[in-house]
Design brief:
By secondary structure, the chain is α+β, with helices and mostly antiparallel strands. Helices cover 34% and strands 22% of the residues. It is built from twelve helices and 21 strands. A five-stranded mixed beta sheet has the order 4-3-12-7-8. Helix 1 (3-34) packs antiparallel against helix 6 (125-146). It binds the ligand Nc1nc2c(c(=O)[nH]1)N[C@H]1C(S)=C(S)[C@@H](COP(=O)(O)O)O[C@H]1N2 and molybdenum atom. Molybdenum atom (MO) binds at residues 246, 294-296, 386-387.
């Protein structure tokens, strides 16, 4: 390899990276004006999330948990970096070909942004402007790497060495200045752009200004005995900061409550309605403890949490709009909730109107909903998995039918309807714990939202099932802790748990994965006793 050749490769790759960085930074800066959803990083990431097959998504959630989105973003950046290096190397040989490469990237970003569920034509701008900026930088840097063409008679040292390279001298100083400028621009522009695109000052101010009214119907105090406070267990009420988060949003939508609107419309709606956030706050509010669970929760998994919510009874809003349940002749059997980021979740109208505390929640554990949990308004239906009920950043409720419309997750092999399955989990001892022989507290939690947990049993090494001591029940819509004192003997032991709900049905031993409508099977923990 000649010196020139190597130099072309290294400086070409570097030029490609710098052009890509400038392009992304410029796009972020333009997205400040156009809207954060138009950033190519966000748009391509969102497209990748939506296109990810359900098996891969579950695998990612299992291995990376809530950092799955970070891993995805790193993957996108790594792919882009590779592409940029190749385009840079090409550009040193052939500048127009390099520019075509950058343009290609711009088109991918623009198409991804426009084709997002909430995409509009102007969302193409950041990617296109970014591509122009990137192409200009690449043109400049690649030119400097090639060097200015000189007359052959000049006897250029570099050009003479390699007849395959254009005759010219590498403008080291010029390249250094241009490269540093590109690096500085992309670092500052990228940081500022990313920061501004992930915080919406008006939305933050609108949330800070919220004073939640006292609910007309308050939740009772949580019974003292509901929270066993055994070391290793989650508290009965999950603090907002540790409440699990599952959604497809690469950047958390920050919605301004002052301009937010909710529409109710569709089949069987005799009076379409529209509400502002203040309209909802002025209505009679209810406060309820509700345990939310994700359908992607594996047996023994962490995607379940319990909070005290304040909200507007959803059934009353629907009745005002003229909606009747299918059992009373209503033409719509599906309520599709849409969020500001284009997510759609479908719930059975019959269930929403059957008297349970389905609500449009505005408060969570004494504060306005956190942005991550759906500010300003999210839906909740006790007893249904999150993906068929708990739409965050809600903005539209449409009455339709299951026959006519498949919501987001249903198009990705999940079941259209999904009541939460009766489940139980051992929280202590931890798997593979080493314990001292003698009395050992075994404890955990069980849930069967809207049916209620009747009893929880454990067994050791496949022996007889023994009743545990259930904690006091808060409501049928909340989880229930349980505990048992086990007289542990030396050796390796397997502890298993199963719950029975108030309809009398006991968890099946049959192990099933999360797709299509939630996992089944008994949670078990293996421990060593010395
Ligand atoms: N807009 C929107 N709402 C959504 C989702 C989403 O991806 N986007 N995910 C749903 C799923 S699958 C679950 S389990 C719950 C999780 O709510 P949480 O993040 O507040 O715990 O939100 C639901 N609401
Ligand atoms: Mo979920």
């Amino acid at each position: 390899m000649t010196r020139n050749w190597k130099r072309g490769l290294l400086l070409g790759a570097l030029s490609g990276e710098l052009a890509a960085a400038v392009s992304l930074a410029a796009a972020e800066l333009v997205a400040i004006a156009v809207g954060p959803q138009a950033s190519p990083v966000t748009a391509i990431g969102g497209t990748a999330i939506d296109a990810t097959p359900v098996e891969v998504k579950n695998w990612a959630i299992r291995h990376f948990g809530t950092s799955d989105k970070l891993v995805l973003q790193l993957g996108i950046v790594a792919t882009l970096a590779l592409f940029a290096a190749v385009v840079g190397v090409i550009a040193v040989r052939n500048r127009p070909a390099g520019v075509i490469g950058v343009a290609l990237f711009g088109v991918v970003g623009a198409v991804a942004a426009v084709r997002r569920p909430v995409g509009v034509g102007s969302d193409a701008f950041p990617s296109l402007v970014g591509a122009v900026a990137g192409a200009a930088v690449l043109w400049l840097l690649a030119g400097l790497v090639r060097g200015r063409a000189r007359p052959a008679a000049d006897g250029a040292e570099d050009g003479a060495e390699d007849p395959g390279e254009p005759a010219g001298a590498f403008d080291r100083r010029g390249f250094l200045i241009a490269a540093s400028a590109a690096a500085a621009f992309s670092a500052v522009g990228g940081t500022v752009g990313r920061r501004l695109n992930s915080t919406n000052a008006a939305a933050v101010a609108s949330r800070d200004a919220v004073r939640l009214p006292a609910p007309l119907s308050a939740a009772g105090r949580v019974p003292a005995g509901a929270d066993l406070r055994i070391p290793g267990m989650m508290p009965f009420t999950t603090p907002n900061a540790s409440f699990y988060r599952v959604d497809t949003a690469l950047t958390v939508p920050q919605v301004n409550a002052d301009t937010w609107r909710l529409r109710i419309h569709g089949k069987g709606v005799t009076k379409p309605l529209e509400f502002t956030y203040q309209d909802l706050l002025r209505r009679p509010l209810i406060e309820r403890d509700i345990t939310l669970t994700c359908v992607s929760n594996e047996v023994g998994g962490p995607y379940v949490g319990n909070a005290r919510w304040i909200g507007v009874p959803l059934a009353e809003l629907l009745k005002e709009a003229g909606v009747r349940p299918p059992s009373a002749g209503g033409p719509a059997d599906q309520l599709v909730a849409r969020s500001v980021d284009g997510m759609q979740l479908g719930s059975p109208v019959e269930t929403v109107l059957d008297g349970r505390d389905a609500m449009l929640a505005v408060g969570m554990n004494g504060e306005p909903l956190p942005f991550t949990h759906g500010f300003p308004v999210r839906m909740l239906v006790p007893g249904l998995y999150g993906y068929v009920s708990a739409c965050k950043w809600l903005t539209d409720l449409e009455l339709t039918t299951f026959a006519d419309y498949d919501a987001y997750w249903v198009r990705r092999s999940w079941s259209p309807q999904a009541p939460i399955k009766t489940s139980s989990r051992i929280d202590t001892p931890r798997p593979f714990a080493s314990l001292k022989a003698g009395p050992v507290p075994v404890a955990g939690v069980a849930w069967a939202q809207h049916r209620g947990v009747d009893r929880v049993e454990v067994r050791i090494d496949g022996g007889e099932w023994v009743a545990t001591r259930p904690a006091a029940e808060d409501t049928a819509d909340t989880w229930r802790q349980w505990s048992h004192v086990w007289d542990a003997k030396p050796g390796s032991h397997r502890i298993e748990v199963r719950a029975t709900d108030r309809t009398g049905s006991t968890q099946t031993e049959d192990r099933k994965g999360t797709v299509p409508d939630g996992s089944t099977g008994w949670h078990s923990v293996v421990v060593t006793v010395e």
